[in-house]
Design goal:
By secondary structure, this protein is an alpha+beta fold. It is built from 3 helices and 3 strands. The relative contact order is 0.18.
Length: about 100
């Protein structure tokens, strides 16, 4: 079939958040614990690089959920920036490379 070589097989496509079934099982309380755990790593006086923040959270925080990708935590940080909980103190081309502090 012409053009079918351009469409990757389902198991060859990159995973997106819908592919991680655990996300659907997260309750509001679990999301709040994740957000609070991320915020604990940041202070108002000292900004943190988002990439460092996510890595440290995933490796050390009891609120980190096994199986969730770093991209999920990046979206949580983006949500907290959008809502004013966190502020970008040094903007980079990508949020992962930016620094954030408490809002």
């Amino acid at each position: 079939m012409k053009g079918s070589e351009d469409v990757p097989e389902p198991d060859e496509r990159p995973m997106d958040l819908d592919d991680y079934g655990i996300i659907d099982a997260l309750t509001p309380a679990m999301l709040a614990a994740i957000d609070q755990g991320l915020v604990v790593e940041v202070s108002s006086s000292r900004a943190r690089k988002v990439g460092w923040l996510i890595q440290n959270f995933m490796e050390r925080s009891p609120a980190a959920m096994p199986g969730l990708p770093d991209y999920f935590y990046l979206l949580r940080i983006e949500h907290m920036v959008d809502s004013g909980v966190l502020l970008v103190s040094r903007e980079a081309e990508y949020l992962m490379q930016s620094d954030v502090r408490l809002g």
